[in-house]
Amino acid sequence: MKDKRKPLINLLNDMKKILPHIEIGLDHYGAVAVSVEDYELFDFIDDYVTEECDLDWQDKTVKEASMGEVHTMYFNPKHSLVEVETALLKLNPKEIEKIYAINN
Known about the structure:
Blueprint (H helix, E strand, L loop, with lengths): L7 H5 L3 E4 L2 E5 L5 E6 L1 H14 L4 E9 L2 E8 L5 H8 L4 H8 L4
Antiparallel strand pairs: 1-2, 2-3, 3-5, 4-5
């Protein structure tokens, strides 16, 4: 099945940075999208949103960028932008930087 989402580069223009290496926005279907620089940090965010916050996402894209890989998760449409952003903003930016530094 072919993915009909906008290319990640177009999606990133609509994103806003809420934490170091993490951006949030809506895709053109209205689903919340969270882009994360680096796989290790993505894995941490994945575990956090699914296990700690009970937020489920349903799709993922990976794009090569100048700073490395950018992993974007697309949340179930039942989750609002405010709901996902509020959950992510509970994270400590210093912890985010520490995890990002593992591979960078």
